[in-house]
């Protein structure tokens, strides 16, 4: 049985998602080493098939090493954001510098299967060079590309307003019935964003 759990973690309230398929779980953007997150996995005797990052800013990666060390799971991400894992300036660390020691495996655009999960990984640069989205059935996990009524900022290291516009143009071609799970804030749908989000009015 498939299900999705959302945990709002860390100082900037990042959405960390647990994707469940029976007792197998895929973790998206672990924003901290949260005991609540670990307890949720352990309560269901979860087998962690992997961690997938939408991008590598500090608030989306802070829990990676803890989860990898506990569950012995691999880390997957776009190779263009790998340098951010070990550079606190590039990953925009606020407060204590965040450095991830886990070696990441590269996800390229297209369909992938990790454990019991088959999904499409989509390039969506702009907020960072390696920003990506994950499409699992009709669920779009878009990181900091798209929010309810807004988009991710483009004034950080490796950001690009031009590439963000290209990513938004691609999003405009996607199925409006998709459910959208952003990196921050409430869940939405593409249909609502096409209608109300001022950054998609073109």
From TrEMBL:
Residues 13-184 form the Metallo-beta-lactamase domain. The keyword Metal-binding applies. InterPro entries: MBL_Glyoxalase_II (IPR051453), Metallo-B-lactamas (IPR001279), RibonucZ/Hydroxyglut_hydro (IPR036866). One of its GO terms (molecular function) is metal ion binding. Keywords: Hydrolase, Metal-binding, Zinc. Its cofactor is Zn(2+). PANTHER family: HYDROXYACYLGLUTATHIONE HYDROLASE GLOC. This is Glyoxylase-like metal-dependent hydrolase (Beta-lactamase superfamily II). It comes from Longicatena caecimuris.
